[in-house]
Specification:
It is a single chain. By secondary structure, the chain is mainly alpha-helical. Helix content is 48%, strand content 5%. The chain has helices at residues 2-33, 47-54; strands at 72-73, 76-77. A hairpin with a 2-residue loop joins strand 1 and strand 2. The chain is elongated and about 80 Å long. 0% of the residues are buried.
């Protein structure tokens, strides 16, 4: 009885492994031929659009007129002179 259960369980796992191997092979051939594409399809949103939709408090809208940035960062001017 125990041997029959172990044998049937082993056969089920073997069949599942074969089915998944065939599925993975199909996916690999689709990616190699270009049938599966990333987010370049029309109608799909970009990463930036998704971030703006999902996290509006973390995404800053581009300013209409950006203020002039300071020429000093960390005590050094951009041209290399120290002040």
């Amino acid at each position: 009885m125990t041997n029959a259960i172990l044998l049937s369980l082993t056969l089920v796992l073997l069949v599942a492994t074969i089915v998944q191997a065939v599925q993975i092979g199909g996916l690999q051939s689709q990616t190699l031929t270009g049938a599966v594409t990333a987010a370049a399809n029309p109608g799909e949103e970009t990463y930036e659009q998704m971030m703006a939709r999902m996290h509006p408090d973390q995404v800053q809208a581009p300013a209409a007129s950006a203020p002039a940035l300071p020429s000093m960062v960390g005590g050094c001017q951009r041209d290399g002179r120290r002040t």
